[in-house]
Amino acid sequence: MRRLPVYILLDTSGSMFGEPIEAVNNGLQTLVSTLRSDPYALETAYLSVITFNSSARQDIPLTELSSFQEPKLTASGCTALGEALTLVKNCAEREVVKTNHEKKGDWRPLVFILTDGEPTDDLDKGIADFRTMKWGMVVACAAGNGANTDTLKKITENVLQLDTADSATIKAFFKWLSASVAGTSERVDGGQGEVTGLGELPPPPDEVNIVV
Amino acid sequence: MKSRRISRASVPTTSQESRTAAILHQLGVNATPAEIRDFELWRTRRLWEQYKDEKMNLLTIAQNELNSADIRFANGRQGEPYKQSARVAVKGLRGIAVKGLDGTGLEASVSTDGTVTLHGTPVNAGDVELTLFCRIDGIDSMLSRKFRIAFNPDPRTLWKDKPVPADIEFPKPDTDCAYVLVPEFEGRRQKDIVAASKRGRSHAQEGSPRDDDFRVSFNPQNGWYVLAVADGAGSAKYSREGSAIATREAERFCAEGLARDGEAFERAIAAFAADKSRENARPVTEYIHNILYKAAVQAYHAIRSKVDLCNGTATMRDFSTTLLLTVCRRFSFGWFIASFGVGDGAIAIYDKGSDAVKLLNEPDSGEYAGQTRFLTMESIFKDRTRIRMSIVPDFTALMLMTDGISDPFFETDANLERKEKWDGLWADLSKTVDFSDDNENAADQLLDWLDFWSPGNHDDRTIAILY
Hints:
Chain A is α/β, with parallel strands linked by helices. In chain A, 35% of the residues lie in helices and 22% in strands. Chain B is an alpha+beta fold.
């Protein structure tokens, strides 16, 4: 079976402390329980969570939805987004199954990045590493005004911005993320091929703006 | 009021204060009773705070130890027995209690070494939040840690079976099956055909119709079988009609061609079977071309006429369909089988006893979905390799199937070449379908078999078997 790998990169730097990180924790919980009740996603989507603050770590390796258990994220430190990009590429290289004669490989992975600040490490190195992998769809989301959308545009053309990093807005983002993963699972399952642009994902809610 | 204060100040009121006064006196300190009382209050308060701090630290340390202890309960599945144990390895553990399992169908049991076992059968799908309470030596407060365990729904229950709207164009029943019982012909025992087609779960979920189709026949006048299956493209709006036209027209054209030219064709086949020379092969391939290839062309034009009738509201693309087509006949020297194939799916001659399987099509599947080729593309007719033929002494089954079946059983094109994979498919089929001669129930049995469960594979499924 061809899996749909989904990598979620979450900023857990100090500025996310309090309401934002709690909203992210709740968002992850909602994301997983929503996807579990979707017949396409339950079988097809596999999730991994990578967090970054002063360094980056893979909190949850690529895991099928049925056995996924959300991590409890806490916030402190800086914003090592560059390191996170290198890490996600290394993880995907290891975890995503390539097509061979006996087995159909996985679909190209989806990557969702949520950050609320400027990277504090070498972003260019991270981007260079990140680009060596073929991704299905990469969406970077700036939570509030602390993150520079021009910086995120260097990573992907698909950049979103949340008006504020409050719980209602972060919740709306995760709801859209759930719908996007469920929609993509259905799409690949139905033989309609992979998602290539934001236009093929569900429209983001009012709180989430597309940065053009 | 006044006299009472004097009396309290002059006479120590507790034995502790008396003792303290005596010790101070020995140390040469003469404190007033008021001072001693104040000192005692001060000392007790200091020690009490120190005591509380130490207790609190112990509690914090123990709570941290509990929080960071590697205790894990894996997720489970609704309605399936669940049993998970985890040892609470915390120093000085005296007792454990588990709360939050009421009404979940689960129970907790705790053994003396601090192992918590959750067991039972979860009633509902969803998250269960439970709290582990622990009592630790020397700490009065109860420690606690929360866990969330997800109980997944049975994926089968998530798929809906939505009816197709009654008013769609080109309606088609959700299932179809057929059995062609063939008595003996020219004094030789003949094989029967069983075929079935079923709307995939992914279509049932959306209330969209079945896009697959099939058509099978046997002509008792000339002994020729014709089998056709087709898979309408999921993304094309009238593909269900495309597959219906393709199978109907191709089968009709082949049957008519065989009725007309059958005898000459049979002579050419017999000559080729006797001497497989290049000269003898040429007339056979010519007949195959005139019958099978032209049947495909005929089907293409029939779809084209349908598009013309739509007055610009539809294109060939809207009728996109694959086509797997086979004609077959028994001779004194064995069986002759010829095929035409466009698109994915598989045609194979399977013989249980032989080492290899004979594939009679080359699947046009690209690495990414949606790259297959369709009968409705004019370019496919330039490619002469779509035609195959084979002469075999006998076989267990000739099978034609859409990718709704070949994908879950073979996954890749390379696996289609592997005999053991076909053995697996045949074994699975034989569990549900009784392939004994003249078993007309096989049609319904085959339809039942099409419900097999394979994660991620929920396309329409169609198979035609000559056995």
